[in-house]
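task queued by scheduler; priority normal; single chain, no ligands, no partner chains; default sampling; output format set to structure tokens
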Amino acid sequence: MFEQHPVPQQISSYQFRLVGDMTLKQFFQLAAGAVVGLIIYSLPLPGFFKWPLIAVVVIGGAAFAFLPIQDRPLEQWLVAFFRSIYAPTIFVWKKADKPEEYFALEATVPQPAIAEDALTDTQPHDVATQTMEQNEQNFLSRVSSMFGGKQLQTMNVQPQSTMPAPEPVTPVPQASKPLQTVPAQAQVEVKPRGFVATAPSTQVTSSPIGQVFSSSGMAPANAAQFSPEAAPPTPPTSPNIIVGQVMDANGKIVEGAILEITDSEGRPVRALKTNRAGHFMIVTQLTSGEYSLTTEKEELSFKPVKLTLTGAIVDPIAIKSEDAMAASPAPEGRAVWAPQ
């Protein structure tokens, strides 16, 4: 069985205690029961009625002082009992005659009538206002006439002909000798020199603006060589992920080599750099198609590698240079052992 949660006690106020845990209020309640019992004892009442009444009064005073019920003293229970008895328990609902209008419009207040004398008193002020308005209208009319009064004059331009000016004819000097008779020849029809008018061409050729890549501009590439030994510590699990390792001709790993992946049209799609172990790996997947890997490293030369992606997991690619890396110089004061 669940116990009722105790009622919070009043701990902010201090109550004076006489003996032990008995407060001053409990002492007065106990003393009141004893005093009332003593008064009843002194009354001339029959014994069968007096003694039970004295016992009830004395026990009631002790109960009010030391017998709380559910952490509440008997006086609170008694007050709550009388409040519940005399409190109204029946509520009667009565319909209102007129419903309340919560969104009623505000009542309009009639404006007071103005006498004719009051209108005549404000006539000089109205005249000044009319004069000011007339001046403003005149000013606005002048401003509008400045912007809208003048009209642009249109000039008719006659098209000029593009025919060249005729060349001046230079007179031929006459010879002083007598003219010789020349046999008659057939007349040759000479067409006058001029220009042939051609209709202007209206054909407009549009060319796309941007970078154009040609598939034939790619350098010749070798087929990719797949090698399980070139796999990184964590091989890829997704398709179209290019991984591999860069080495020189002697199989030594190449660190810091720059790789550029281009598509079939020669456009760069990825740029990578090898780590200390010579491995490289792209993060995002590429679309299926043909790609070319170009590797660059100082003192080494690499041939482009051609690769075709088909949507499957790509094996690690081993890229080797055409020449070997130069041996690093030995530090001074130390001997370098080389196998014979």
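post-processing summary
- The longest helix spans residues 123-148.
- The two ends are 97 Å apart (CA to CA).
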